[in-house]
Amino acid sequence: MAYNLKKELAKPERLAGGHRMCAGCGAPVAVRAVTRALKEEDKAVIGCATGCLEVSTFMYPYTAWKDSFIHNAFENAGATVSGVEAAHKALLRKGKIKDDYKFIAFGGDGGTADIGFQSLSGAMERGHDMVYVCYDNGAYMNTGIQRSSATPQYADTTTTPAGTVSDGKPQGRKDLAAIIANHNIPYVAQTTFIKNFKDMHEKSEKAIYTEGAAFMNVLAPCPRGWRYPAEDLMKMCELAVETCFWPLFEVVNGEWKLNYMPKNKLPIEEFLKPQGRFKHLFKKGNEHLIANIQADIDKRWEQLLVRCGEKSNIKETV
Amino acid sequence: MAIRERLSGNEAVATAMRQINPDVMAAFPITPSTEVPQYFSKYVADGLVDTEFVPVESEHSAMSACVGSQAAGARTFTATSSCGLALMHEILYIAASNRLPITMAAINRALSGPININADHSDTMGSRDAGWIQIYSESNQEAYDNFIQAVRIAEHKDVRLPAMVCQDGFITSHAVENIELIEDDKVKDFVGEYYPENYLLNSDQNLSVGPYDSPAFYMEHKRLQVEGMRNAKRVALEIAEQFEKMTGRKYGLFEEYRLDDADAAIVIINSAAGTAKDAIDKLREEGKKVGLLKIRLFRSFPAEEIAEALKHVKAIAVMDRSDSFNNQGGPLNAEVKSALYGTENAPKIINYIYGLGGRDVKVENIEEVYASLFEIIKTGNTGETYRYLSVREQEAQ
Amino acid sequence: MSKITEIRWHGRGGQGAKTASLLLADVAFNTGKYVQGFPEYGPERMGAPITAYNRISENKIRVHSNIYDPEFVVVVDETLLETIQVTKGLKKEGAIVINTEKSPEEVKGLLNGYEGNVFTIDARKISEAALGKYFPNTPMLAAIVKVSGVMPEEKFIEEMQHSFEHKFASKPEVIEGNMNALKTALQEVK
Amino acid sequence: MEKKTNINETIVWQDITPGGDILASGNSAEFKTGDWRTDKPIVDMEKCIHCLLCVPVCPDTSIPVEDGKRLEFDYDHCKGCGVCAKVCPVNCITMVPEGK
């Protein structure tokens, strides 16, 4: 059925207010968008890696989660939710429970791409019927903005500070969505908050209602870690997409598909400029650093276009 | 009637698992516990159980999946050893503090390094403060009996704590010995079904598990957790009594062997206790008053009962199959000593570190220990209290 | 303390000495005995010398150490005589059984002056004749049963018949060969 | 089902929930984060076209919807981030300093 925001918003919210996330945080917006794709009548168990989202939404004796919820540790949301899913299968089979449940795990980029990477890989490879959502804010924000493997190149973080002899994080980003896609699971998507959330909603719906393991990589800006004005949340997402820093795509049963082609691909400066973590790049003499980022973005974008069949790879040699 | 069988220790616990038919088993292979998930996955493959077996990619994920599964409302088992248990370490605490009665077969093996695949207790002793109930087993029979009882102790509403049932790697895990099995239906009736009060998949009542806990509440949660561990002692005895009614096999918090009138005693855990019993019988034939106390329930630690059982003894050797590297002795030594602190005319106590990394323990080695105890009784001089048994060393000048 | 018969096996990884020790525990168990069967474990792979043990008794066995002064030793691979001191601790009132085509007198020189009884058996010949393949296990098992006297031969034959029927339920054609190997071995050990 | 949390900082260990389990789902609503605000969104309902674009962008679930129309802000929980004001296509949300 065609996406209708009004209709979707008529459903009861699954994340209550009163949680302790920062004003303007992208993570709860991601949670609301994903869980909105659950059918109203469907039950779910939500799991969460340790991180901002977990400690702020489930601070004893208050939980913001309206569904059953489990937090275990930083690095094991994949394994934990696979355990819940296995229990569900067993208890249904034994007739001890009757209801069907959906299983969704949330983790930040640290809990997903780094410390929780093995646990996630195992859960995806085993094919548990679950969705793992990485809300990527590009650093370990919970502990105070330390670099992760998802931190963009040259970002100034508290463990890759820009200094007189440092340009910030030397390495580029790990391509998590592609890595998970290579697990040959039925559904992988990359998305973020754009306009009326159509892209994110449809992907969430597919991820939840695809049988087997599904993975979503969601850009979730962090005003504190990125150092931009909190009210610009949606603007940051839009710039990430329009500069091709964060392309929107999905991989359905191994088929790559581009979901959005910017009419005019914006230069990466547009995305970098509003963010304090890239301020040092705009000092005189650092133009080559921005050029490096642009070259990397362009390369990855071209590769994605080829993968998605938007462009033939004329240079390909085997 | 009991079923006369011969099984290795690993097959014995796997058999208990099959008879109980848990909802979920999540495990990763590690020597010497590997056979347990192997046997179990064969039971799954042959339809002897309808358990969901989760072949995880590490022990860390094994314990993580166990936490998710047990919280979801499923009776969940696992098995591991050594480095595998160490890799689970963080999550062991979470399982316990979340009050999730997971049951684990812990097949004792030395911790690296250097890497060694043979028995000692450095693995489970390293987990002793994680909040798990720990039950130790001398033989395959005890490993089997203890596993069946552990599930009930763990799940008891006054306890609600995970339990590990320990036995010595290879020495009992891979040794085929006689065993008396209980009929499948009797085990099923004894253990019963798992019906937790609250669980994630309860459609009548949602549940949130694993909060961020501020200083305002954390300590109350810990104090409540301690109460579960305190209750474990009483519950273990209640369940042992029911078990005895079913099988005729008696279990307590610990076993006393010819201890009543003993002048010299050793305190010991797991398989070497059997070897020590042979040494005791031999020495008793020579008229020597020797005995032993074999600890079954190490967590919670039955300190008062142990002190009572040992108070008449003149000299005690506490036998540790792992070291604490505190320059004072092993973990069992510390516990037994503090249990006896304040006892009037407290016995003299020495500690022996023995059997590390599978160093074999012979009847003669135990006889040496008793000889040193009699020397202490004779001279009144305890001498060095922190000793190593059967270690090669330079002769004293 | 009751008498415990202690047996030590020497073989090479992959030859089945461990399996043979477990089989011996099995048949002894089936005749109503208390048993232990256990290998000494290390990370060794195929071909490395391995040791396995049996304890057999009328009473419950509690001791959990290796066996240092066995009553009987079984050598599944005669090349081990060159490299391993197979008679170490072996009681002189006991015996050693060796898989070789040689006679006891011929191998005695390799046994470090062992004074007890020496038995040999050509397990290769027996196995190949009866089974068409080299499985030293079965003949060696029969040989040690005969030499040690841990159970009557008839009882052993009867138990092994049951055991093979169970073990080879899916390929009954090999049962007869195995039984023949056992019976020949019982006669030929000397 | 427990409607309201009866756990507070006077609770004794005997009464606290084992493991920190919480049965009252979504009870964080009892915790007011509205006093975190320094700027406050004011919606001009006259101008609002009820496109609802402001609703999904709210990190604090503080824009209730009823019968396809947005209601007044839930000031008990709104932290005043201003994301809603930025996405409003008809500029009917204004941020004003708190307390004015």
Automatic annotation (TrEMBL), chain A:
Residues 151-163 have a biased composition (Polar residues). GO terms for molecular function: oxidoreductase activity; thiamine pyrophosphate binding. Residues 50-218 form the Thiamine pyrophosphate enzyme TPP-binding domain. Residues 151-170 are annotated as: Disordered. The keyword Oxidoreductase applies. Pfam families: TPP_enzyme_C (PF02775). InterPro entries: PorB-like (IPR051479), THDP-binding (IPR029061), TPP_enzyme_TPP-bd (IPR011766). Transmembrane segments: none annotated. This is Pyruvate ferredoxin oxidoreductase beta subunit. It comes from Dethiosulfatibacter aminovorans DSM 17477.
From TrEMBL, chain B:
The keyword Oxidoreductase applies. Transmembrane segments: none annotated. Keywords: Oxidoreductase, Pyruvate. Residues 16-239 form the Pyruvate flavodoxin/ferredoxin oxidoreductase pyrimidine binding domain. GO terms for molecular function: oxidoreductase activity, acting on the aldehyde or oxo group of donors. Residues 262-366 form the Pyruvate:ferredoxin oxidoreductase core domain. CDD domains: TPP_PYR_PFOR_IOR-alpha_like (cd07034). It comes from the Bacteria. One of its GO terms (biological process) is carboxylic acid metabolic process. It holds the Pfam family POR_N. Belongs to the pyruvate:ferredoxin/flavodoxin oxidoreductase family. This is Pyruvate ferredoxin oxidoreductase, alpha subunit. It comes from Dethiosulfatibacter aminovorans DSM 17477.
From TrEMBL, chain C:
SUPFAM superfamilies: Pyruvate-ferredoxin oxidoreductase, PFOR, domain III. GO terms for molecular function: oxidoreductase activity, acting on the aldehyde or oxo group of donors, iron-sulfur protein as acceptor. The keyword Ion transport does not apply. Residues 13-186 form the Pyruvate/ketoisovalerate oxidoreductase catalytic domain. It comes from the Bacteria. Keywords: Oxidoreductase, Pyruvate. The keyword Oxidoreductase applies. This is Pyruvate ferredoxin oxidoreductase gamma subunit. It comes from Dethiosulfatibacter aminovorans DSM 17477.
From TrEMBL, chain D:
Pfam families: Fer4_21. It comes from the Bacteria. Residues 39-68, 69-98 form the 4Fe-4S ferredoxin-type domain. Gene3D superfamilies: 3.30.70.20. The keyword Metal-binding applies. Keywords: 4Fe-4S, Iron, Iron-sulfur, Metal-binding, Pyruvate, Repeat. One of its GO terms (molecular function) is oxidoreductase activity, acting on the aldehyde or oxo group of donors, iron-sulfur protein as acceptor. The keyword 4Fe-4S applies. Its cofactor is [4Fe-4S] cluster. NCBIfam families: PorD_KorD. This is Pyruvate ferredoxin oxidoreductase delta subunit. It comes from Dethiosulfatibacter aminovorans DSM 17477.
